[in-house]
Design brief:
This is carbonic anhydrase. With 193 residues, the chain is α/β, with parallel strands linked by helices.
Length: 193
């Protein structure tokens, strides 16, 4: 069983003090916060491609790296990073060939029904409560557009200081190559003039 495997490994990890090379403080040394996707291909690739190590940055991950609304948990974490954890710059990083860009909300809902997790009655109640489940489950169509939308949402957020650069990038999940969508420094200069 996976849990037992992990617990056994962890016990040995702690006993052998393998954590020592990773010791860091909670304040990011590079004073940055990164929002990106939870894609398994990016677990090690993203930090290596950005040259960030333990203690360098706050990294927030979710499906697609999507900021769903100005007051969702991602934005709560970004705001906390800026005010409480000394992050001076924000990096919003999408990636090519993201599963969220090929999401199929109707198919996901059907899988829920097939597994007996929900029923048509429960789905109706969710809809009646004002939740558009298909919209909630939908990812995005175009990663560059999503990245631009994320940048616009963060840059115009009423709780984000106007002097904080908000960068938008897209990473290739195979090579780690970054493409610049929005240069946060350039955007700040344009806003000041």
């Amino acid at each position: 069983m996976l849990l037992q495997e992990i617990l056994e490994y962890n016990e040995q990890f702690v006993q052998d003090k393998k954590y020592l090379p990773n010791e860091a403080t909670k304040m990011p040394k590079k004073r940055m916060v990164v929002v990106s996707c939870m894609d398994a291909r990016l677990i090690e690739l993203l930090p290596k491609a950005l040259d960030i190590h333990d203690g360098d940055a706050k990294v927030i991950r979710n499906a697609g790296g999507k900021i769903a609304s100005p007051f969702d948990s991602v934005m709560q974490s970004v705001v906390a990073s800026v005010y409480d954890l000394n992050a001076d710059e924000i990096f919003l990083i999408g990636h090519h060939r993201c599963g969220a860009s090929q999401s199929n909300p109707k198919g996901t809902i059907q899988k829920m029904l097939d597994r007996g997790v929900t029923t048509p009655e429960i789905l109706s109640a969710i809809e009646y409560a004002g939740v558009d489940l298909e919209k909630w489950l939908f990812g995005f169509h175009n990663v560059e557009d999503l990245t631009q939308a994320n940048v616009d949402l963060v840059r115009n957020h009423p709780l984000i200081p106007k002097d904080v650069p908000v960068h938008g990038l897209v990473i290739d999940p195979h090579t780690g190559k970054l493409e610049l969508v929005v240069d946060g420094y350039k955007a700040l200069n344009e806003m000041q003039h």
